[in-house]
Amino acid sequence: DVAPAVLEQCTQAFTDGTRSFDLAACRDFDSSLIGILLELLRQSTALGQAIELTGPPPNLRKLAELYGVQSLLFKPPEPT
To answer: Is 40 exposed, middle or buried (0-12, 13-18, 19+ CB in 10 A)?
Structure first.
């Protein structure tokens, strides 16, 4: 239900110059977050601007992998 507002906030942040989004605090999410992140990636690509999505929690990585978009959104995790 909050996805449109989150997308609007992220788009505004991107428009204002934010190029790095820290996802570490994302604990309660569903596939809508994947859609938001893909839209941010689409916007940045269209403008020739790179974005960085940092700190994705393991469950977000798993969800992105399930949808086949992990390599589009995230750098490989650091070895432990």
So the answer is: buried
Residue 24, pLDDT score: 95
- Write out the two tokens for 78: 């650091």
Q: What's the pLDDT at 76?
A: 79
The whole-number pLDDT of residue 68 equals: 97
Asked whether 28 and 60 are in contact (CB, 8 A), the reply is no
DSSP assignment of 28-43 equals S--HHHHHHHHHHHHH
Taking the chain, what is the end-to-end CA distance rounded to the nearest angstrom?
A: 36
